[in-house]
Design a protein that fits this description.
The chain is an alpha+beta fold. It has two domains: 11-114, PAS domain (Beta-Lactamase, 2-Layer Sandwich); 119-198. It has helices at 7-20, 39-45, 49-52, 57-60, 70-76, 116-161, 168-198; strands spanning 24-28, 34-37, 79-88, 91-102, 107-114. The termini are far apart.
């Protein structure tokens, strides 16, 4: 009974797994050239199969740091795991790189997981945390400003009742009350705006455009301008 070769089924299985993977996968031969790359890798690196296969892997996987040779490092290590920024056609690409050295002479299997969306979500979360902290700080500052304002207003009202309406000094007291009320409105307005901006949105959701495009909303008053 003739021996059955397992090479063809294994090769077919390997190609099927690479084609079905969402992670970019590159197989680099002992001459440090790309022997195979899956569709996810082609999309990530903005390449075609004809341009990628046979090309020096170091030319394709160039990091933003001069002298950082990730392919050479993968050949030197049995296993490699790093977060790197690669040069891409559309700009810099953050990826998590895993390298596996296999066989003799050594081949290297590289996997690249795109971290663009993960980094964007992390930036959104950090932004929400900063806004929340700023909102708490604004609330504390508003409280500290309003306390003396309340004392000034109460004292001015008591003082105003001691003067005759035509007394020239009463006019200055009324100015104190008006300016105190105006300052209180400013603090309230700034606090409401800051708290509104500090409300976290679901990460990845864009804010609705304001003004300009789309239908205008009726019944919304124009912003009040302080004099």
């Amino acid at each position: 009974m003739p021996a059955v070769s397992r090479a063809a089924p294994v090769e077919a299985l390997t190609r099927a797994l690479m084609a079905d993977a969402d992670t970019a996968i590159l197989l680099v031969d002992p001459h440090e050239r790309i022997a195979s790359i899956n569709d996810a890798g082609l999309r990530l690196l903005s390449l075609t199969s004809a341009r990628a296969c046979g090309r020096a892997a170091a030319e394709v996987l160039r990091t933003v740091i001069a002298g950082d040779e990730v392919v050479l490092e993968a050949f030197r290590s049995a296993r490699l795991e790093r977060d790197v920024w690669l040069h891409g056609a559309g700009g810099e690409i953050p990826v998590r790189l895993h390298g596996y050295r296999i066989g003799r002479p050594p081949w290297v299997l590289l996997t690249l997981r795109d971290l663009t969306q993960t980094r964007r979500l992390q930036q959104e979360l950090r932004r929400h945390e900063r806004l929340a902290t700023l909102g708490q700080l604004s609330a504390g500052v508003a409280h500290e400003i309003r306390n003396p304002l309340a004392g000034i207003g109460t004292s001015a009202q008591v003082l105003l009742r001691r003067f005759e309406p035509r007394d020239e000094r009463a006019r200055f007291v009324r100015v104190i009350l008006e300016e105190g009320a105006r300052l209180d409105r400013i603090v309230t307005s700034l606090l409401h705006r800051r708290l509104h901006r500090a409300r976290p949105r679901a990460p990845g959701r864009a804010a609705r455009p304001r003004g300009g495009g789309g239908r205008g909303r009726r019944g919304v008053a124009a912003p009040h301008r302080l004099h």
